[in-house]
Amino acid sequence: MTARIFAYVVHKSGVADDSALEMIAAARKIDPAASPTAVVSGWGPEVESVCESLRASYGEVWKIAKEKLAYPNAELVRSALVTVLPQGSIVLLPHNHFGIDLAPGLSIRLNAAFVSDVVGIDGAEGPWLKVVRQEFGGQVSAHVRCDISTGAVISVRPGAFKPGEGAPVAGLVVDRSADVGELSARRRYLETIVPEAGDVDISKEPVLVSIGRGIQEQDNVAIAQELAEAMGAVVSCSRPVVDAKWLPKSRQVGSSGQTVKPKVYLACGISGSFQHLAGLKGSPFIVAINKNPKAPIFQVADVGIVTDMLEFLPELTSRIRAMKQVSV
Amino acid sequence: MEILVCARRVPDSSENEIQLNRAGNDIEREDLVYSINEPDNYAVEEALQIVAKAGGSVTVATVGTDEDEEILRREMAMGANRGVLLSDEAFSESDGRGIATVLKAFAQKNHYDLILTGVQAEDGGAQVGGMLAAMLDYPFASLVNSIEVLEGNKLKIGREIEGGSKELSEIDLPCVLSIQTGINEPRYVGMRGIRQVASLEIPTYGASDLGIDKGSVGAAGAKVKRDDYFIPAAGKGAAMLQGSTEEIAGKLIELMKAKGGLQ
């Protein structure tokens, strides 16, 4: 029997994140008999509706309702969790922008082991929990052991654990708000800036020619633009292209950019990190063009071509142009 | 402002095909191209830009071995005032907490107003910055993509959150920030710059210099251990197109036509 398992549930506009159910699946991989407890912090009707919705899947839901927790500030949430969680707990949370903010410091305060961005769990063996992580941009995976004898904080990759078909439960909501004392933070939330809309809305485009690090220099972006023009498509990109300021943020596909749902997605010189793939929805037909045969993009693509995109794309463009001229 | 940047030397996964070694217990490290972890380089650039406006100095520290000196020199060529190597047999096989323990000991021996790390290492877990902050009891923010120095010993920072949005906050100094790529445009470092710092001394501190209990770091202190690396069972995998460039382009055009990819 392992320690008690908690799942910290993030939510927005009164709706629990998809990770809420994925963490139940992860908890069962740690201990098949586990009945994890959800922990929800927030304020007002939003936190109430999240707790209510989680009763269908969690046997117990701990509610921490505090006005200061209305906006999820990791420093305040950490203080609250450290107060209410029993020693030796296993705490699950999603490896997203909030989990990255909260989890490492939480593990220090709980004196617990920390493993981040876990994609698989092979179960417990004595004091060791055996998990799987990915490294080097997903090119290799690693078996990692984590000593859970003083508890553990484990952040799980969104989408990595498939929610099971658990029978509905009528979970109990336990209000732990009164156990959390006065909260004060040295980091204070001001506002959220939503990105400016770009010249095109890539989220609505049916065909995307998407470029990544393989484009190598700014002048080469034209190669992709010419292909897109010939195809009647639009150019999008992965993070390194935006970091280099070669294309605006509004063209970025991924968890920190846009979510797109094209019919056809040409991934050119894109390795296929999970953050990038998280922005690709609706099961498009994916064509991967990459020099590196080990690039993770080939695992998810329908069609793959191992070649230098800088040589291949112009060839493709001229053939499409020639074909269109014939058909006109 | 006195700024400490914590950096690491890593195999660059964008420049390398990462493969397993023969024993399967590690990646094949022969012939790998190593460089400074990319977000760490952005962190150094950001530190240099802050110091250019607000004054102060930039120290770059790494936990590693003599081989890791090269990234310290590279960052000194960029403009960092000093590089520091934190090195000891006892530090090897540290987990994230062990690395943070070493950095904490070093940070406490000096006074830093601001500590920067990269958001994540190629083989890391986006963890050391947050752990270090908690150990020092400093406030922390991750995924930082803008920094503005305010009056009254605080910063206005932006964090990259979902959908390209930016979360703005105020944070008190001293603090620890993990820096996201794209926050700035790191300056170019030429061979000439590297040569100019080639003979500068890089101080090295070990466990006893830093007053670190050897049982709390390295393999002895690690709560997290990597057993091996493996190549995951492939998913369905892509149908690989073979042949000459012309043949491949021809096949691809047919496939894209069928899928509605040619308008």
Sequence-ordered SSE layout with sheet pairings:
The complex is a heterodimer of chains A (328) and B (263).
Chain A: E1 5-8, E2 11-12, E3 15-16, H1 19-30, E4 37-42, H2 44-54, E5 60-65, H3 74-84, E6 90-94, H4 97-109, E7 113-118, E8 120-125, E9 128-135, E10 140-147, E11 152-156, E12 172-175, E13 187-193, E14 207-211, H5 221-231, E15 234-237, H6 239-243, E16 264-268, H7 274-277, E17 285-290, H8 297-300, E18 303-306, H9 309-327
Parallel strand pairs in A: 1-4, 1-6, 4-5, 5-12, 6-11, 7-11, 14-15, 14-16, 16-17, 17-18
Antiparallel strand pairs in A: 2-3, 8-9, 9-10
Helix pairs in contact in A: 3-4, 5-9
Chain B: E1 2-6, E2 9-11, E3 34-36, H1 38-54, E4 57-63, H2 69-78, E5 82-86, H3 96-109, E6 114-118, H4 128-136, E7 140-150, E8 154-160, E9 166-172, E10 175-179, H5 191-196, E11 204-205, H6 207-210, H7 218-221, E12 224-230, E13 239-240, H8 245-258
Parallel strand pairs in B: 1-4, 1-6, 4-5, 5-11, 6-10, 7-10
Antiparallel strand pairs in B: 2-3, 7-8, 8-9
Helix pairs in contact in B: 3-4
* CA-CA gap between termini of chain B: 56 Å
Number of domains of chain B: 1
What's the helix count of chain A?
9
- Structure summary, number of beta strands of chain A: 18
Structural category of chain A: alpha/beta
Count of domains of chain A: 2
Sequence of secondary-structure elements of chain B: EEEHEHEHEHEEEEHEHHEEH
